[in-house]
Amino acid sequence: MSIDSVRQFFAARAPDITVMEAVESTATVALAAAAFGVAPGQIAKTLSLRVGETVFLLVTGGMARLNNGKAKAAFGGKARMLGSHEVEALTGHPVGGVCPFGLTSPLPIYCDISLKLFDEVLPAAGSANSAVRINPVRLAELVGAAWVDVCEGMGAS
After folding, report:
1. What is the C-alpha radius of gyration for the chain, rounded to an integer number of angstroms?
2. Tell me: the pLDDT tens digits for 71-114?
3. Does domain 2-152 have CATH number 3.90.960.10?
4. H or E element in which residue 60 lies
């Protein structure tokens, strides 16, 4: 089960971080923000992308949108979203629960600077109703992510 791989990831690397589970679905930014009582921008969404043959994850602020021009410059080509069947096969996490923790196979991970607007963000934790509370800089350090500026439209709410 995907959430178990995330729990194992944190048990090994950051035992002070606990996976939270909501009764209701947190599969969208709005649902997650309501369930965990935070601003939508604090929800860290993880996008599964491909540029050419390279598949990678991009973690962004909840209200951010990918800027195609910035993404093309940063990643060397047009970024395309993976299909849901590919996402689970490559990450081990279902759509709605995709996160950079406890991945089935290693993937390059990027964090957009939109995450730095908050001291604490809440990425999913391997299921459609789970999340963790984490400082964005610590998130990037734990998963070996590189910082990029590829999004727009992010506000503090």
Report:
1. 14
2. 999 999 999 999 998 999 999 999 989 999 999 999 999 999 99
3. yes
4. strand 54-61
